[in-house]
Amino acid sequence: MEVTFGVLGPVVALRDGQALALRGRRHRELLGRLIAARGQVVTVAGLTEDLWADAPAGAAGAIRTFVGELRRVIEPDRAPRAPAGVLVTHGPGYALHLDAGAVDAWRFERAVQAAAALPPDAALDALGEALALWRGAAYADVGDGSWAQGERARLEELRLLARERHAAAALALGRTGEAVADLERLTVEQPWREEAWRLLALALYRSGRQGDALATLRRARSLMDEGLGVEPGAALRRLEVDVLRQAQHLDPPADSAVGRLWASTAAAYDRSVPPRVRLRSSVDMLRGLAVGAGGPGLQAVQAGRLEAVEAAEELGDAELTARVIGGYDVPAIWPRGDDPEQAARIVRAAERALIRLDAGAGDGLRARLLATIAVESRGTGGRRPAEAAAEAERIARGLGDPSLLSFALNGVLMQSFGRTGLAPRRDALGAELIETAARHGLTSFEVLGHLVRLQARGALDDPTGADGHAAALTALAERHEVPLIAVFVRWHEVRRLTLDATVGWDAVAGAYARAVAALESAGMPGMAGGLPALVRLCLRVCRGMDAPVDADEDWGPFEPWARPFVLLAADDAVAAGDAVRAVPDPPADLLQEALWCLVARAATLLNDAETAERARVALEPAAAEIAGAGSGLFALGPVASYLGPAEPSSSRSPSR
Fold first, then answer.
1. Which of 164, 281, 371, 636 could be a cystine partner for 627, CB 3.0 to 4.6 Å?
2. Does domain 174-250 have CATH number 1.25.40.10?
3. 21 burial type by CB count under 10 A (0-12 exposed, 13-18 middle, 19+ buried)
4. Which helix (H) or strand (E) segment is 89 a member of?
5. For 194-231, b where at least 16 C-beta lie within 10 A, e where not — what string?
6. Angle between helices 609-619 and 592-605 (to 10 degrees)
7. Distance, CA of 29 to CA of 42 (rounded, Å)
8. pTM of the model
9. What are phi and psi for residue 81, nearest 5 degrees?
10. Chain centre to alpha carbon of residue 405
11. What confidence score (pLDDT) does residue 253 get?
């Protein structure tokens, strides 16, 4: 007989679908607390603290009594003195040993995460079934302990996300009436969720109600302003402009032959393919989505990739786990991750898979795990990622596998920032990627190679070479429909304006503003965070312009390098001097030369010879390069110009 549990509503235990008699509130609280622990041991002391705000003297004994009574309900056929199989004792506490599908909340979480990688018709069904598991507020009858409040909040947030994704799937299938009804309820219940407002306005527009769509967007704007004192986010603002323009991309998807083929094939696949094969195929789908989609697609990938890895680990098959992890060989161009916590979890899973793999699993699979470690550890430093990259490259060259070699070289690339001035090394890596990928039809890595060389040739003051790679990228984008390429090419074109003395400040600043708007929708927060403010500062420094530098800018991770300039603009040279002396070494990535140049310029302005020398030593290997150009985003001018003193009239000395 199968025992299952429900917490998406009042806490219940069921055997073969029939509710079991849980005696009282404390029993349900104890059971709920152990379910929330997800198999981890909760000590008697911890249970006492969680179940009572002011525990009575006999609380520990009462918990042991509750446990005994719960065991008799959950496992009535267990022989006297036989060890419990479900609610087990571990040292000083208790834990529940349950299958992954034994709790409705666990099934709900898995379904929501898996649906992110499904086509709209399958996602609509999966999310509908998942939402039907709810019977009320999560843990509805277990009081307001901090653990219960945290679990309720977490699950409710996931429920709201599932409702939004369910509506988005209905919208993608042309079921606008259904989507409008669901989203109108959701925006009334949750008026601060911008994605719900965006989807509602889009559903209204696709229903032929342009006026109602605009009214909805303006109602959202008013609520945000009056209730929170903030402007709507970029997605809502863009949609309002697109609705006014009647932008073509807002139109509903056509019922095309390709769409019908996809739907029928996906349905047949879902009916006939075993779970392990389906899991590996999901990774293939996520990889294709990451390469071929824009921002929304990348967000779906991030939601689904980790779920696929965790699902593989739960099956206990080390080789399957390794294939799921290593199969996601999506090229990485920016040496700072979008989600460091998720990347760290992927790395830990890859390390576990390496340990558990059988000797017969093959060197190729090990190399893919090592390359994954190198790529996902970008920007973290340390010896392990670089060693993993080198070992992956060695194995790949020995096996003669071009796809594996391209992935391994991507890992080497992400670990090629140990000091400044390594643009020639990256240029050589890009050349090998292009040659290997073009010969073997590996389009995504051919794109990566051209992007790498676009950056490197810019750093090496070869604008003609950089333009050639930009043209090659544009041709690849048109041939293979890779939308993100256009973002990088646009930034390259704008970057060239920075160094053109004939182009005025307003024209350059306006071009960068348009490039920033394109980047906002690209789905790469690891690249975009703080970048607009940094670009504006670097443009001013490059063109020899003084303040203003706005202290309220969103500097993101670049704030320590901007702080001296902000303080100088505020005429606080003493604080600026303290700030420049305290500035850390820049992260080892594509912007390190630019950030060191900012340090050098600030130190020179403040007559801080020690910090200026520190910057000079760091920049010396890159003396022949163009600062910042290696990012492909902007330029600060020749590195050499930051190694000597600035104009005497522009320097300031902090006084105390």
1. 636
2. yes
3. exposed
4. strand 87-90
5. ebbbbbbbbbbbbeebbebbbebbeebbeebeeeeeee
6. 160
7. 13
8. 0.61
9. 70, 0
10. 25
11. 64
Distances in Å between the Cα of 91 and the Cα atoms of 40, 44, 67, 637 are 12, 10, 14, 64
What are the residues whose beta carbons fall under 8 Å from the beta carbon of 388, sequence distance 6 or more?
370, 371, 373, 374, 377, 411
Owner of token pair 């200026």: 612
Residue 262: the pLDDT is: 54
What is the per-residue pLDDT for 231? 81
User: How far apart (Å, rounded) are the C-alpha atoms in residues 440 and 88?
Assistant: 56
Q: How many CA atoms lie within 13 A of 69 on its CB side?
A: 17
Calpha distance 8→152 (Å, rounded): 9
Structure tokens of 39?
């198999």
* Three-state secondary structure readout of 605-647: HCCCHHHHHHHHHHHHHHCCCEECHHHCCCCCEEHHHHCCCCC
Q: Is 14 helix (H, G, I), strand (E, B) or coil?
A: strand
The per-residue pLDDT for 255 is: 53
Q: Are 335 and 429 in contact (CB under 8 A)?
A: no
CB atoms within 10 A of CB 371: 30
The neighbour count for residue 545, using CB atoms within 10 Å, is 11
Specify the CATH class of 1-170 in words.
Answer: mainly alpha
Is residue 205 a contact partner of residue 250, using CB atoms and an 8 Å limit?
A: yes
Which letter, b or e, does each residue of 402-411 get, where b requires 16 or more Cβ atoms within 10 Å of its Cβ? bbbbbbbbbb
Tracing tokens 């850390």 back to the chain, one arrives at 584
Buried b (16+ CB within 10 A) or exposed e, 125-137: ebbeebbeebeee
Q: How many CA atoms lie within 13 A of 90 on its CB side?
A: 14
CA distance 1 to 575: 71
Token pair, residue 99, equals 């299958």
At 637, give phi and psi (nearest 5°): 90, 180
Q: Which residues contact 399 (CB under 8 A, 6 or more apart)?
A: 363, 364, 367
Residues of the chain scoring pLDDT < 50: 256-259, 296, 646-656
CA angle 166, 172, 176 (to 5 degrees): 80
Distance CA 510, CA 397 (A): 46
Residues 467, 469, 473, CA angle at the centre, nearest 5°?
115
Residue 265: what pLDDT?
64
In the block, residue with structure tokens 């209905």: 170
Span between the terminal Cα atoms of the chain, in Å: 80
DSSP 586: P
